[in-house]
Structure formats: structure tokens, C-alpha cells
Specification:
The protein is mostly helical and about 450 residues long. It has 21 helices and no strands. Helices cover about 75% and strands about 0% of the residues.
């Protein structure tokens, strides 16, 4: 469609908050690349454990499948801690490229080894673990690059689009993988996953920050962004991220709101972990239903998360910290009906509502970190955040197994909700305050922009 008399194509009608983003060519390219890799990860939810089932040694299937699934994510925490001395000096774009390229190469080795007949069970685990080694740094580079590309008032909408892409991938990716597995070996589908990360690696190479912006740790950043801070804020505690590996703790002491949102997020994901164990058992043991109902729970949750995330991006004046607490409380509340024996129609609706409530959380959390962290420290702080959170939900899931066996699925689901509400109450009592000129956690972006 072209504008009359101009001969130029017009962008389709978009909400005002998103129009500048889709007019921003580097961001558009990145968003396409992110969507591709998200879709690959969505397919991996099905294909990684399914191939593990096919390869599992006799008598140890459960242990092996759990190890394979963990290998696709958890080594990223090790990489964040062990490789920090080298990785935190890289520009954000290069971190994103390194993570995507490593994933692409290691995952591409899976179908290659399958064809050659050398894909043993533990070679598969090693390839999955190697593919995820830089994942915390790649995620840090992703959101640091977004912060360097965009003005502060555009970051919430950008983070919302990126997180909604990940949620949408969880709606369609597993479904497509389930269809493809009927015709192809799961090893080939993991090869498709590798291709999606190759797309991300190419996208990372092609993108450049506008003007003189520099996404390198300690760079200047966009005018008016975090990089404009001088003195201690520009270098960070102990002289910046080039100092001792644990010097980042000094930054958390100076800016307790960062530590507060990290602790809140870790605890939130930890308390969510038992849900992943209890919900399937609730479907099979309490409701005596099959996988179609379990799939409906997660599909509607993911669809709600897409809508919630997109809605959050359109809110120009959003108090980040209070909204984050409201999201955590809302998720806890939608789990309570499970404890009262509510029928599936009610709990499925609650899960869809839970996705809608949860949707904005990722975008809000990353926006808060981008907004409160000095530019020189952003990559390192986001990598620490990623490393910490990689273990939160799996730890909760590990605890959920024995709890579900002892108390029953309904009780564990409701207890997870009650504990999440208690977490919010505790957070309200110890709400951190900003220091050194930083904004109050509850101050909205619009007010800061006006200042």
C-alpha cells in the first residue's frame, strides 16, 4: 500500500508506542532475528527431550532425559561465572553473536552425528551443554544492545515486543515440532533449531547502533541514556567491570533497587518451579485427563502472555517496581483456586489470566535493569542476573517433586500461589530505595523523561 502522491509504502496501522520501533531499521532486523531463534527454542521444548527419550540408555531413561533437558540451559550459569573475565570486555553485539554462533554450530552437530551414526546418549548431552555455555552472556548482550540502540523512553515497548516474541514461540513452536516429529527424526528438527540461531548470528553481525552510540561496556551510549552518567556511575564501583569478578556486588550495594528486583525475580521463578511438576500430575491424577488438557493450560497461558506483554509496551507511564509486585501477586492469586478443587473450566481460565498478568514481567524487569544500571556495567550485571535466574525455576521444580508426592498436586499448586503472595508482602516491607541520584523504583518513565 502506498501513500497517495508519494509512491512510498506506508507502515500498517500500529499502536503509537510501536510505530517508532518498526520505523527503526536496526531494531526491525534484530526483532526478526530474535523471533527466529525464539521459534527454534519453542520447537526445542519438544524435540530436545524427545530425542533424549530415543537415545536414553536402558533402565536410566528418567535420569538421562532430565540431564539432557538441563544441559540445554543450566551450563549458561557456569559460563557466566567462569568466563566473565574475558566476556565482559566484549561489545554487546559480539556477545550476542558469540552465543548465537556457538548454539548454531553445536546444535548443527546433532543431526550430523545422527547421520554418521555416532550420536551416543552422552555425546548428545555434551553438545547440548556446549551450545548453552554462553547463553547468559548472549542474553545480556541482547538487552544491552537494545539499550544502546534505543532512547530510554522506547525501551519498555522494545522489551515488550522481544518478550512477546518468546511467548508467541511457546504457542506455535511446540505444536509445529509435534507435527514435524511424525515425519522427521527429532535430530533433524534440532538442525532446524540450529538454523534459527544462525539467523540470529547473522542479524547480530549486521546491526549497528545509530550514530556514534557504542554498545561496548563503558561506551558512551545514546545521548541522554545511562552512558551519560559521569564519575562513579560511569566507571562503576572498583573502577568498572574490568575489576575483580565480584566487584559487581558493590554496584548492588550502591543501587539496592537492582538487588531488590533480582531477589524478587529469583524468588518468583523459584516459587513457580513446583507448578511445572504439579500441573501435569494434577491433570493425570486429580482430573484423570490426557495431554490435550495439559497442552491447553500452557497454550492459553502463552497466548495470554503475548497479549499482556504487548499491552505493557503501549503504556507510556508505567511505575516499574509497583507493577512488578502487582504481577507477582496476580500470578499467586490465580493459583489459589486449584486448592479448592475448582473444575478444569475455572482453572484453565485462571491459567490464561495468569499468562496475561505475567506477560509484562520480563519486559518490565529488563527495563528496570537497563534504566537503573550504569552503561559501563550493564552487560556484566545482566549476565549476573541471567546466571542467577537460570537455576531458580529448576531448583523450585526439584523441590516440587517430593512436595507433590507428599502433599498432592492440588495442594502444591495452591501452596505455590500462597507463598508467592507472601513473597509480595515481604517485598513491600523491605522495598529498596534508590541512591546516588537514581530514580525511585516506583517512579515512572514518563516522569523521568520530563525531568
Amino acid at each position: 500500500m502506498t501513500a497517495p502522491g508519494t509512491g512510498r509504502a506506508r507502515l500498517p496501522k500500529l499502536p503509537p508506542a510501536y510505530r517508532p520501533l518498526f520505523a527503526h531499521r536496526p531494531f526491525r532486523r534484530l526483532l526478526f532475528a530474535f523471533a527466529a531463534s525464539d521459534f527454534g527454542d519453542g520447537m526445542a521444548v519438544v524435540t530436545v527431550p524427545w530425542l533424549a527419550v530415543l537415545l536414553a540408555p536402558d533402565g536410566n531413561r528418567g535420569l538421562y532425559v532430565g540431564t539432557a533437558v538441563a544441559a540445554y540451559a543450566l551450563p549458561g550459569a557456569v559460563g557466566a561465572l567462569v568466563l566473565g573475565r574475558w566476556m565482559r570486555a566484549f561489545p554487546a553485539r559480539r556477545l550476542l553473536f558469540a552465543d548465537a554462533a556457538l548454539r548454531a554450530v553445536m546444535l548443527a552437530c546433532v543431526p550430523l552425528a545422527w547421520v554418521l551414526g555416532v550420536l551416543t546418549p552422552w555425546l548428545y548431552v555434551v553438545l547440548l551443554a556446549a551450545s548453552s555455555l554462553l547463553h547468559a552472556w548472549g542474553s545480556a548482550g541482547k538487552y544491552t544492545l537494545l539499550a544502546s540502540l534505543l532512547a530510554p523512553e522506547r525501551r519498555l515497548a522494545a522489551n515488550a515486543l522481544v518478550s512477546s516474541s518468546a511467548s508467541a514461540a511457546m504457542v506455535f513452536g511446540p505444536a509445529l515440532a509435534g507435527v514435524l516429529i511424525t515425519a522427521l527424526s527429532p535430530a533433524w528438527i534440532i538442525g532446524i533449531d540450529a538454523l534459527t540461531f544462525a539467523v540470529l548470528a547473522i542479524g547480530a553481525v549486521r546491526v549497528r547502533p545509530d550514530g556514534a552510540a557504542d554498545e561496548r561496556p563503558g561506551g558512551t551510549g545514546r545521548p541522554g541514556g545511562p552512558g551519560r552518567a559521569g564519575g562513579a556511575d560511569a566507571a562503576g564501583p572498583s573502577g568498572g567491570p574490568g575489576g575483580k569478578p565480584f566487584a559487581v556486588l558493590g554496584l548492588f550495594r550502591q543501587r539496592p533497587e537492582l538487588l531488590g528486583i533480582l531477589v524478587l525475580t529469583w524468588s518468583f521463578f523459584f516459587l513457580y518451579g513446583p507448578v511445572e511438576v504439579a500441573l501435569p500430575l494434577h491433570v493425570t491424577e486429580d482430573l484423570h485427563q490426557g495431554p490435550h488438557l495439559l497442552g491447553l493450560y500452557w497454550t492459553l497461558f502463552s497466548a495470554g502472555a503475548v497479549l499482556g506483554s504487548l499491552a505493557a509496551g503501549m503504556l507510556r507511564r508505567l511505575p516499574l517496581w509497583p507493577t512488578a509486585l502487582g504481577i507477582v501477586a496476580g500470578w499467586g492469586a490465580v493459583l489459589l483456586p486449584f486448592g479448592f478443587g475448582a473444575p478444569p473450566a475455572v482453572t484453565v481460565t485462571c491459567f490464561a489470566l495468569g499468562g496475561l498478568i505475567y506477560g509484562p514481567f520480563t519486559a518490565l524487569s529488563f527495563t528496570l535493569f537497563q534504566d537503573r544500571t550504569p552503561a559501563a556495567w550493564l552487560t556484566t550485571v545482566l549476565a549476573v542476573r541471567g546466571a542467577a535466574l537460570l537455576a531458580s525455576s529448576p531448583t523450585g521444580a526439584a523441590l516440587g517433586g517430593p512436595l507433590t508426592a507428599a502433599l498432592g498436586p492440588r495442594t502444591v499448586l495452591a501452596a505455590s500461589g500462597a507463598a508467592t503472595l507472601a513473597l509480595v508482602a515481604a517485598a513491600l516491607l523491605v522495598r529498596p530505595k534508590a541512591r546516588h541520584g537514581g530514580r525511585e523504583p516506583g517512579e515512572d518513565l514518563g516522569a523521568a523523561e520530563a525531568a
